Amino acid sequence: MSHKDLTNKEAISKLKELVEGIDFTMMDTNLGGKPSHIVPMSTKDVDDNGNIWFLSNGDSEHNSYIKKDNAIQLIYSKPQSMEYLALFGHATILTDTDIIKKYYQSSDDAWFDGPEDPKVTAIKVVPESSYYWDTKNGKLTTLFKMGLGVITGEKQDLGVEGELKV
Q1: pLDDT score recorded for residue 46
Q2: Is the pLDDT score of 142 beyond 90?
Q3: What's the N-to-C CA distance of the chain in angstroms?
Q4: Does the structure show a pLDDT above 80 at 147?
Q5: Contact 52/63 with Cβ under 8 angstroms?
Q6: For a pLDDT cut of 90, what percent of the chain falls above it?
Q7: pLDDT at 100 over 70
Q8: What are the tens digits of pLDDT across the range 44-96?
Q9: In contact, 37 and 27? CB cutoff 8 Å
């Protein structure tokens, strides 16, 4: 794999591309505890500043951990196209109704009684550091290139990896 660190707008663009293409993440809170607390979460948005948004139940265990220590890890994985993102940042829990309405969708009715439900909170994650792996060409092409490399003994460009400095 080649290495390419991205900064500023280019980093935010890559972050949006990966997060929106993958959607679900494993949200890891209680990072200093053993064990940490990991739950799957659906991403609502990556805003123009690179902040990642979620909706969550205010009574949830991960919300309680964020209130104690807002350090957070997000792991995005899309094995079928070999795209991955590991992100460390800090989370803020918000109860602003306008923000909640902005991100609330009908699918959220499975967990809440509408955007005015007092249990609904928004979680804003501000990335501090992140690292990505992207094959560029998808799984089949990457597997083909790996096989070609084995046969020919020549290294193949399997994709790109690097830091995203938002």
Answers
A1: 97
A2: no
A3: 22
A4: no
A5: no
A6: 72
A7: yes
A8: 999 999 999 999 999 999 999 999 999 999 999 998 778 899 999 999 999 99
A9: no
Q: What's the 3-state SS for the chain?
A: CEECCEEHHHHHHHHHHHHHHHCEEEEEECCCCCCCEEEEEECCEECCCCCEEEEEECCCHHHHHHHHCCEEEEEEEEHHHCEEEEEEEEEEEECCHHHHHHHCCHHHHHCCCCCCCCCEEEEEEEEEEEEEEECCCHHHHHHHHHHHHHHHCCCCCCCEEEEEEC
Side chain identity, residue 42: S
> Tokens 């690097």 sit at which residue?
162
CB-based burial of residue 28 (10 Å sphere; 0-12 exposed, 13-18 middle, 19+ buried)?
buried
Calpha distance 85→25 (Å, rounded): 9
| Cα 125 from Cα 15, distance rounded (Å) | 13
Q: Which of 94, 99, 96, 86 shows the shortest CA–CA distance to 130?
A: 86
pTM above 0.70, yes or no: yes
